[in-house]
Amino acid sequence: MNFVPNLTGTLIRLEEDESSRFRFEIWFDYTKQAMNLIREGAMLAVPNFASNNYEQHLSILEVVSILPMHYALGDDPRGYPGFVVEAARSAVNDWEEQETEATEDVTKIRCIAIPTNFELVQSARPTNGNPNLQEESNLPMVGASVRVLDTAFTEFVVNYGIRGDENTLGRRRTHP
User: Which residues form the domain of 51?
Assistant: First the structure.
Protein backbone atom coordinates (compact mmCIF):
# COMPACT_ATOMS: atom_id res chain seq x y z
CA MET A 1 0.00 0.00 0.00
CA ASN A 2 1.32 3.40 -0.88
CA PHE A 3 0.54 6.83 0.44
CA VAL A 4 1.45 10.21 -1.04
CA PRO A 5 4.74 10.99 0.73
CA ASN A 6 5.08 13.90 3.19
CA LEU A 7 1.36 14.66 3.21
CA THR A 8 -0.42 13.99 6.51
CA GLY A 9 -3.52 15.65 7.89
CA THR A 10 -5.59 15.41 11.06
CA LEU A 11 -9.19 14.28 11.42
CA ILE A 12 -10.73 17.29 13.19
CA ARG A 13 -14.44 16.51 13.25
CA LEU A 14 -16.95 13.74 12.66
CA GLU A 15 -20.68 14.44 12.33
CA GLU A 16 -23.74 12.54 11.25
CA ASP A 17 -25.06 13.24 7.75
CA GLU A 18 -28.42 12.26 6.25
CA SER A 19 -27.13 11.50 2.77
CA SER A 20 -23.76 9.88 3.46
CA ARG A 21 -24.17 8.59 7.03
CA PHE A 22 -21.19 10.68 8.25
CA ARG A 23 -19.16 13.73 7.20
CA PHE A 24 -15.55 14.15 8.20
CA GLU A 25 -13.52 17.36 8.40
CA ILE A 26 -9.79 16.93 7.84
CA TRP A 27 -7.14 19.64 8.02
CA PHE A 28 -3.84 19.50 6.17
CA ASP A 29 -1.06 22.07 6.55
CA TYR A 30 -1.27 24.40 3.56
CA THR A 31 1.35 24.30 0.81
CA LYS A 32 0.88 25.02 -2.87
CA GLN A 33 2.13 21.50 -3.55
CA ALA A 34 -0.53 19.99 -1.26
CA MET A 35 -3.25 22.06 -2.96
CA ASN A 36 -2.21 20.48 -6.26
CA LEU A 37 -2.13 16.93 -4.83
CA ILE A 38 -5.38 16.79 -2.85
CA ARG A 39 -8.41 16.78 -5.13
CA GLU A 40 -12.09 15.99 -4.92
CA GLY A 41 -12.35 12.22 -5.27
CA ALA A 42 -9.01 11.60 -3.54
CA MET A 43 -9.02 8.68 -1.11
CA LEU A 44 -7.83 9.10 2.47
CA ALA A 45 -6.93 6.52 5.13
CA VAL A 46 -7.47 7.14 8.86
CA PRO A 47 -7.14 4.71 11.78
CA ASN A 48 -10.43 3.57 13.28
CA PHE A 49 -11.54 2.14 16.61
CA ALA A 50 -11.25 -1.49 15.42
CA SER A 51 -7.44 -1.24 15.55
CA ASN A 52 -5.65 -3.35 18.15
CA ASN A 53 -2.12 -4.55 19.02
CA TYR A 54 -2.10 -6.97 16.07
CA GLU A 55 -3.88 -5.07 13.32
CA GLN A 56 -4.36 -1.49 12.25
CA HIS A 57 -7.76 -0.81 10.69
CA LEU A 58 -7.80 2.23 8.41
CA SER A 59 -11.14 3.64 7.27
CA ILE A 60 -11.07 4.76 3.65
CA LEU A 61 -12.72 8.15 3.08
CA GLU A 62 -13.39 10.08 -0.14
CA VAL A 63 -12.74 13.82 -0.41
CA VAL A 64 -15.86 15.67 -1.61
CA SER A 65 -14.71 19.25 -0.94
CA ILE A 66 -11.37 21.01 -0.57
CA LEU A 67 -10.87 24.61 0.47
CA PRO A 68 -7.75 26.57 1.43
CA MET A 69 -8.40 28.52 4.63
CA HIS A 70 -6.55 31.56 5.98
CA TYR A 71 -7.58 31.95 9.58
CA ALA A 72 -6.21 35.49 9.88
CA LEU A 73 -9.11 36.55 7.64
CA GLY A 74 -11.76 34.96 9.83
CA ASP A 75 -15.15 33.70 8.67
CA ASP A 76 -16.93 37.05 8.41
CA PRO A 77 -15.73 39.72 5.95
CA ARG A 78 -18.13 42.34 7.39
CA GLY A 79 -15.44 44.10 9.46
CA TYR A 80 -13.90 47.47 8.72
CA PRO A 81 -13.46 47.42 4.90
CA GLY A 82 -9.93 48.84 4.90
CA PHE A 83 -8.73 46.20 7.35
CA VAL A 84 -10.50 43.34 5.56
CA VAL A 85 -9.05 44.28 2.14
CA GLU A 86 -5.55 44.74 3.55
CA ALA A 87 -5.70 41.42 5.41
CA ALA A 88 -6.84 39.66 2.22
CA ARG A 89 -4.01 41.23 0.21
CA SER A 90 -1.40 40.21 2.78
CA ALA A 91 -2.81 36.64 2.76
CA VAL A 92 -1.59 36.29 -0.83
CA ASN A 93 1.99 36.36 0.45
CA ASP A 94 1.27 33.40 2.73
CA TRP A 95 -0.27 31.45 -0.17
CA GLU A 96 2.66 32.12 -2.50
CA GLU A 97 5.55 31.69 -0.05
CA GLN A 98 4.55 28.19 1.12
CA GLU A 99 5.47 26.23 -2.00
CA THR A 100 6.56 22.90 -0.46
CA GLU A 101 6.86 23.63 3.27
CA ALA A 102 4.17 24.90 5.61
CA THR A 103 5.52 27.84 7.62
CA GLU A 104 2.32 29.60 8.74
CA ASP A 105 -0.09 28.08 11.26
CA VAL A 106 -2.91 30.37 10.03
CA THR A 107 -3.14 28.58 6.67
CA LYS A 108 -4.80 25.18 6.37
CA ILE A 109 -6.40 23.02 3.72
CA ARG A 110 -9.87 22.04 4.90
CA CYS A 111 -11.23 18.86 3.35
CA ILE A 112 -14.68 17.41 3.76
CA ALA A 113 -14.84 13.66 3.20
CA ILE A 114 -17.48 10.95 3.26
CA PRO A 115 -17.16 7.25 4.06
CA THR A 116 -16.57 4.66 1.35
CA ASN A 117 -17.64 1.94 3.83
CA PHE A 118 -14.31 0.17 3.23
CA GLU A 119 -11.36 -0.25 5.51
CA LEU A 120 -7.83 -1.43 4.98
CA VAL A 121 -6.46 -3.89 7.52
CA GLN A 122 -2.70 -3.90 8.08
CA SER A 123 -1.46 -6.83 10.10
CA ALA A 124 1.62 -6.82 12.31
CA ARG A 125 2.13 -10.42 11.17
CA PRO A 126 3.74 -11.11 7.78
CA THR A 127 1.23 -11.43 4.92
CA ASN A 128 1.41 -12.25 1.23
CA GLY A 129 1.82 -8.53 0.50
CA ASN A 130 -1.68 -8.01 -0.85
CA PRO A 131 -3.73 -5.30 0.84
CA ASN A 132 -6.67 -6.57 2.86
CA LEU A 133 -9.68 -4.44 1.96
CA GLN A 134 -12.96 -5.22 3.72
CA GLU A 135 -16.23 -3.68 4.84
CA GLU A 136 -15.66 -0.94 7.40
CA SER A 137 -15.99 -2.27 10.96
CA ASN A 138 -15.86 0.89 13.08
CA LEU A 139 -15.64 4.70 13.07
CA PRO A 140 -12.47 6.71 12.38
CA MET A 141 -10.81 8.28 15.42
CA VAL A 142 -11.05 12.07 15.69
CA GLY A 143 -7.54 13.44 16.17
CA ALA A 144 -5.89 10.61 14.21
CA SER A 145 -3.42 11.18 11.39
CA VAL A 146 -4.88 11.04 7.90
CA ARG A 147 -2.89 9.92 4.86
CA VAL A 148 -3.67 10.38 1.16
CA LEU A 149 -3.70 7.18 -0.92
CA ASP A 150 -1.56 7.29 -4.06
CA THR A 151 -3.10 6.81 -7.52
CA ALA A 152 -2.40 3.07 -7.77
CA PHE A 153 -3.98 2.26 -4.43
CA THR A 154 -6.93 4.57 -5.12
CA GLU A 155 -7.54 2.59 -8.34
CA PHE A 156 -7.40 -0.63 -6.32
CA VAL A 157 -10.08 0.66 -3.91
CA VAL A 158 -12.32 2.09 -6.65
CA ASN A 159 -12.08 -1.10 -8.75
CA TYR A 160 -12.45 -3.48 -5.79
CA GLY A 161 -14.74 -6.36 -6.69
CA ILE A 162 -14.80 -5.59 -10.42
CA ARG A 163 -13.64 -8.36 -12.74
CA GLY A 164 -10.48 -7.65 -14.73
CA ASP A 165 -12.27 -7.89 -18.09
CA GLU A 166 -14.67 -5.04 -17.25
CA ASN A 167 -14.04 -1.33 -17.78
CA THR A 168 -12.36 -0.01 -14.65
CA LEU A 169 -10.82 3.24 -13.50
CA GLY A 170 -7.33 3.51 -14.98
CA ARG A 171 -7.69 0.31 -17.05
CA ARG A 172 -10.04 0.52 -20.01
CA ARG A 173 -10.59 -2.16 -22.59
CA THR A 174 -9.43 -1.21 -26.07
CA HIS A 175 -11.64 -3.70 -27.93
CA PRO A 176 -15.45 -3.90 -28.04
Answer: 3-158
